[in-house]
Amino acid sequence: xxxxxxxxxxxxxxxxxxxxxxxxxxxxxxxxxxxxxxxxxxxxxxxxxxxxxxxxxxxxxxxxxxxxxxxxxxxxxxxxxxxxxxxxxxxxxxxxxxxxxxxxxxxxxxxxxxxxxxxxxxxxxxxxxxxxxxxxxxxxxxxxxxxxxxxxxxxxxxxx
Length: 160
Known about the structure:
Elements: H1 3-31, E1 36-37, H2 39-43, E2 53-59, E3 65-66, E4 72-78, E5 83-89, E6 101-108, E7 114-121, H3 130-154
Parallel strand pairs: 1-2, 5-7
Antiparallel strand pairs: 2-4, 2-6, 3-4, 4-5, 6-7
């Protein structure tokens, strides 16, 4: 084999090894990636099926219930536009309360209930996860727009 052909084979072999290494790294990264979705996005079927993701918003007042086994908790997460029921088996964080911000990680079940494997609560009086705060703000704006549209339709479109 000529030296030129040998160098070419070494370059092609090196590129193949780099390609395989990059594919393995990207595959490992993708399998550990967890995305955040709001209850409105989950209701619109934008969330992945049979894959872990995070859902966030506010714990709906009056929705916190303890199951008979004493360990399983059920509550509803809302972004003020849509609500998703959540089931969590374990001890909830001390700062977990109704009406406060929460992020839960888990999978959406066939029954429409989000089965959380981890629940994260706010860490101080004014904190809400940025994704959850953004989702709540968007839902409130959409609700205000729909109310404005209803008022305009009732008044004949004049907006008065």
